[in-house]
Design a protein that fits this description.
The structure holds two protein chains of two kinds. By secondary structure, chain A is an all-alpha fold. Chain A contains 14 helices and no strands. In chain A, helix 6 packs antiparallel against helix 11. By secondary structure, chain B is of the alpha/beta class. Chain B is built from 18 helices and 22 strands. Chain B has a six-stranded mixed sheet, with helices on both faces. Chain B has a six-stranded mixed sheet with strand order 16-19-20-13-21-22, with helices on both faces. Chain B is globular and about 75 Å long. The chains are: A mainly alpha, B alpha/beta.
Chain lengths: 364, 523
């Protein structure tokens, strides 16, 4: 996966470049949508092989995830945390940092938000309480990323390993916190105190869609603009694309590395907070939706482009909401959504390889 | 050998002949039409500095690389050496610079690697064969010792033994002495002599003159991808060691006839009274595992002056450049720019004050290959006005200035958006020149500014450097090409093992003096 820089436009030196640019966009579209269609066909064959009518499956997915009024509202609500996670991953991946610890950071953010929000709403105005909870969630997630960040920045320890290990610890710690520290004494089920519905993030208009969706959209668009348009984003991209060039150019690579971890983890923590404060209201013990890992393919498919990521996160939401319903009706396991997404990724990688080989042979 | 040798000049006795072999890598001509003949019973020394093209040549002989032009004859027959396995089958065994043994296995197991997977390893057969070979060579090899327990010299013997077990007729030793003790080097010399006495051909690669003279029968000198001379075996025998060394020095550093690069050294007048722009005193850098340190480096450069740093590659040149630029931590000494101490400042602050470093590693650290040309002009100014305002990129300003620089420095690029990695080496160098020399430069460090460039770009870069000095800047020119230094510098300092061993005014006999300093003789 190459990190391209699609937004850096320069004045065209040759007149044919406008047509070339259009052809380029068309080519990119084809290279993205083609593999998705191919993946749907392959996944359909797998469904056929296990005795399920693929058309019925896809039909249910679309009906529930996209076309039914209730379904589309659920889909859009699901997007809120996914968008925050995607924003965090875009920062990290563009800076060449493989933060795969999203789930641990997400859950710790969720638990701290769930623990703090019911307390805060009794002490201060609701809006301030929610902001406070968001902040605490982000800070806790940032602190959780500090160990991999420091190891990466000063010792060069591979962050893929450390973030994955920290995510195991993080999910367990979140569980322990729910069961031992923040447990709601009023219920028998191990869960945190529930935030009253009226204190949660408001819903949009007369729907069930959470306003967290708007926050998520804002987050990912801001991240995209920061990464592509600002000096800070360019510095992060230089570190990602060629760390030695970053040192040569005099950038403070360790500091930037820690900043990347902090931003990425902070956004994952916010994802947890927005899911709790907007939708769930509390955290049950052993709750782990594993959004962090599910979002990674969507970010890759979008080539770390924020706007494209919104589209793919939407698709992922449709698939996961629709997939849940289709799973109930057709007896296909819920996880088939993940199978579908991974088939898309593999086909995409193959398409990219073939395209690259074709370009090479055409040049030669 | 029975086949017809159809080529004139190719001796029937030659095992391998290279004819006009050329190999190019992106932006670099690594080997430029090289002729070489390798005979049994001879140690053929390939002498040249790092980057002279020795490793590329070995790569082609051992089947790792394919030549772009020219041909390779094995036993007089045109042959394409397609893979290392094929090379071994042809009887060409290579002992690479870095050990290629599995440390956790025993010597015997290492020797048996590469046999057919469906057969049980033939240990007894191997033992008999090894005993035979070692007896004739007068070495002892502990077959059942683990490789990790052996010294580097012993490991090398195992590698040579491995080539022998596989019936090699031609043994290539790539920088084999670089990791050995003096005693180990002598033993290797004796071993090579015994091997050639048995009728083997040996290609011995080194950049050390003494070894070349002591162990060789025939010497080919490579310089910047070209073969600049050969001392044939008849002549070799007739000369004494000192004569050979001085002849090699002449070949490596001497002026060649019709050299298009040779330019009369321009006479510049430097105001001797002017205060030095850059003053370096007792600069020291600690050595690391794989780089030499620096010790007590001191020099001054006045405005308009070009100070050259000559020396065999890898003697601390890069460390010197990096320590001056602020990329590498200095353990002592002072660096003054216009009289102000800058040794505690960061890379960015030093640049701000006018110290510029043009790296020799253009794609590795000089640029971000996937980023467009326009952004690469400003990699060292990210966030600075007018190209960024309040942290936001001003695309119009960037493009305007980039277009200007592209014109001014004659960068040949399809567009400003083109990823800089797609440009040729010469054009990438122009991007770097533009970036470092544009506004505000006072002292510029050039590290191997023409390395790997073609002739036109080489000459253009040199002219650019001269013009820069003429504008009154102080220039530190680090180069392994003595010709380049002689044609450009006012003074030439020689670096060896991380210390300056002498400084020579660039007048009449500078060539000899610098050459002598470079090989460790007093000027």
């Amino acid at each position: 996966m190459s990190i391209d820089t699609p937004t850096v436009n320069a004045t065209a030196l040759d007149p044919t470049s406008a047509a070339a640019a259009r052809r380029d966009i068309l080519h990119k579209l084809l290279m993205t949508l083609g593999p998705i269609l191919a993946a749907l066909v392959i996944a359909g064959c797998i469904l056929l092989a296990v005795g399920v009518d693929p058309l019925a499956y896809y039909g249910y997915v679309l009906e529930k995830g996209l076309f039914s009024p209730l379904g589309i509202q659920q889909t859009l609500t699901r997007m809120a945390p996914l968008l925050f996670l995607a924003a965090g991953l875009i920062v990290a991946f563009r800076a060449g940092t493989w933060n795969l610890g999203g789930d641990g950071q997400f859950l710790l953010g969720a638990v701290t938000a769930a623990a703090s929000a019911p307390v805060f709403v009794q002490l201060m105005p609701a809006w301030l309480a929610l902001i406070g909870s968001f902040l605490i969630a982000a800070v806790v997630a940032m602190i959780w990323s500090l160990v991999p960040a420091l190891l990466r920045a000063y010792q060069g320890v591979n962050e893929i390993i450390t973030t994955l290990m920290m995510t195991f610890l993080g999910t367990s710690l979140a569980n322990v916190l729910v069961k031992l520290v923040f447990r709601d004494p009023g219920t028998t089920v191990p869960q945190t105190r529930t935030l009253p519905v009226e204190d949660r993030l408001p819903r949009l208009f007369d729907t069930t869609i959470t306003s967290g969706l708007l926050l998520g959209l804002a987050a990912i668009i801001i991240v995209h603009l920061v990464m592509t348009r600002t000096a800070f984003g360019l510095k992060l991209r230089i570190v990602g694309a060629n760390p030695r060039a970053a040192i040569h150019a005099g950038l403070g690579v360790p500091g930037l590395t820690i900043a990347v971890f902090a931003i990425s983890a902070g956004l994952a923590g916010l994802a947890g907070a927005v899911d709790i404060i907007g939708v769930q209201g509390n955290v049950r013990a052993d709750w782990n939706p594993a959004y962090g890992l599910a979002v990674i393919p969507a970010v890759f498919l979008a080539r770390m482009n924020g706007f494209a990521a919104i589209g793919f996160v939407f698709l992922l939401s449709v698939l996961s909401i629709g997939g849940e319903s289709a799973a109930r009706r057709l007896g296909v396991p819920n996880h088939f959504t993940l199978v579908l997404v991974s088939i898309v990724l593999i086909v995409l990688a193959l398409a990219e390889y073939v395209d690259h080989r074709y370009n090479q042979s055409r040049k030669a | 050998m029975g086949s017809l040798s159809s080529l004139p000049g190719a001796d029937k006795r030659d095992i391998v002949v290279l004819e006009g072999v050329t190999k190019r890598f992106p932006g670099i001509v690594a080997n430029d039409s090289i002729d070489l003949s390798i005979r049994p019973g001879e140690v053929h020394v390939l002498l040249g500095e790092n980057g002279a093209g020795k490793s590329t040549l070995i790569g082609m002989l051992s089947g790792l690389l394919q030549p772009d032009e020219g041909r390779i004859l094995v036993d007089g027959k045109l042959t394409q050496i397609t893979s290392p396995r094929h090379a071994l089958a042809l009887g060409i065994g290579t002992v690479f610079q870095h050990m290629m043994l599995v440390p956790a296995l025993t010597v015997a197991e290492n020797l048996l690697l590469g046999g057919p997977w469906w057969q049980r390893p033939r240990t007894e057969e191997l033992e008999a064969r090894v005993a035979e070979i070692t007896r004739s060579l007068g070495i002892t090899v502990k077959l059942h010792a683990k490789v990790s327990e052996l010294s580097l010299g012993e490991q090398q013997q195992v590698e040579i033994l491995r080539a022998m077990v596989r019936n090699s007729r031609l043994l290539i030793l790539d920088e084999s002495t670089s990791m050995l003790t003096p005693k180990g080097i002598d033993e290797l010399g004796t071993l090579m002599r015994r091997l050639v006495e048995q009728g083997l051909a040996i290609v011995f690669i080194t950049h050390k003159l003494k070894e070349a003279a002591a162990f060789g029968d025939r010497i080919s000198v490579l310089k910047l991808g070209r073969k600049v001379g050969e001392i044939p075996s008849e002549r070799f025998r007739a000369l004494g060691e000192q004569e050979i060394i001085s002849e090699i020095v002449e070949l490596m550093f001497g002026k060649q006839k019709d050299d298009p690069e040779a330019v009369e050294c321009p006479i510049r007048t430097i105001c001797v009274e002017a205060a030095p722009l850059l003053q370096v005193a007792d600069l020291a850098v600690a050595p690391t595992d794989n780089t030499p340190g620096l010790s007590s480096i001191s020099f001054d450069i006045r405005p308009g002056e070009i100070l050259g740093i000559a020396g065999i590659d890898g003697n601390g040149q890069k460390q010197l450049a990096e320590a001056l630029a602020g990329q590498r931590v200095a353990t002592g000494g002072s660096v003054r720019l216009e009289g102000t101490a800058i040794e505690m400042l960061s890379v960015g602050e030093r640049r701000q004050r006018g110290l510029r470093y043009l790296t020799d590693d253009r794609l590795g650290e000089g640029t971000v290959g996937t980023f467009p040309v326009s952004i690469n002009f400003f990699l060292k100014q990210v966030g600075a006005a007018p190209f960024w305002r309040n942290g936001f990129e001003q695309r119009a300003e960037i493009d305007k200035r980039a277009a200007q620089l592209v014109r001014e420095y004659d960068v040949r690029t399809p567009s400003l958006k083109t990823p800089v990695g797609r440009l040729s080496g010469g054009n990438i160098q122009k991007v770097l020149l533009a970036r470092e020399l544009a506004e505000g430069a006072k002292v510029v460090i050039f590290n191997k500014p023409t390395y790997g460039l073609d002739l036109a770009n080489t000459l253009a870069s040199r002219q650019r450097i001269r013009d820069t000095a003429a504008r009154g800047l102080a220039i530190l020119l680090i180069s392994t090409d003595l010709e380049e230094l002689l044609s450009m510098c006012d003074r030439i300092a020689v670096i060896a093992n991380g210390a300056l061993v002498g400084t020579v005014e660039n007048v009449d006999d500078a060539r000899t003096k610098v050459g002598r300093l470079m090989i460790g003789l007093a000027a």
